[in-house]
Amino acid sequence: MDQSEHSDVPTLIGVLGGTITTEDTNRVETTESSPTLFGNASAPLRTLEIGDSDVVFMARHGLPHTIAPHEINYRANLWTFYEASASAIIGMYTVGAIADNFIIGDIVIPNQIIDYTWGREGSFNSVLGLNHFDLSEPFDPVVRNQLISSALESGYSIHTSGTYGCTQGPRLETAAEIERLRRDGCDLVGMTAMPEVALARELNIPFGGLCLVVNAAAGRGDGPIQHHGISLAIERNSPNLLDIVGRAAHSLKEILR
Ligand code: HPA
What we know:
Elements: E1 13-17, E2 26-30, E3 46-50, E4 53-59, H1 74-83, E5 88-97, E6 107-108, E7 112-115, H2 125-128, H3 141-153, E8 158-159, E9 163-166, H4 175-184, E10 188-190, H5 193-202, E11 207-216, H6 227-255
Helix pairs in contact: 1-5, 3-6
The chain binds hypoxanthine.
Residues 94-96, 167, 172-173, 189-191, 214-215, 217, 225 line the site of hypoxanthine (HPA).
């Protein structure tokens, strides 16, 4: 399971993307996808040119975007990156803001997660054996620090920490559910970071998260959550997120070589 087993292959940085648009990036190559030991991944890996770096990208909701958060085959997705010998993975997430100091358009590099999901296949134990691995710090410090410094280098003002509450979806939450998440200490809410963060750790693939706040979470804004507001936030901020991903991938290739 040690990544050094793969040290003779070029350093490859994986990106798992959700609704952040990658349409403006150059596609270099699409890899033929075959079913994994755990079934089919959401989409084939595509090599994309982001800024001055190539990354290997997977659309976690499929192409076109049809796979709901609770229906994603997280194990197949992560296993695909493992088989491709990814040296690190960056997960991009759109999230709702719970904490008062997070507003729409904010970029957050999360440092913690609380998992509220259920029924998702969340371990490779059937193939790798039972392993009660440590997840005290769910995000890899090297990838996290690189995302932070790449964002700061480009002049973005970011939040360098935050607790991501992962809900089941696909519906949005009730105001009372969000109030509970707030009491639990969640700053952000999304639907897809778990179990992918834990699965990456089980495979020893360093994993960092990059979040974009696209709405105020239920009960914390001025009324119902509007989809056009979410789309607008994504459209406006996707280039900035991709800029950070490209810069971080470029540096991580050097660091993890
Ligand atoms: N809740 C859950 N997931 C989300 C939200 C939200 O408010 N916004 C974007 N992803």
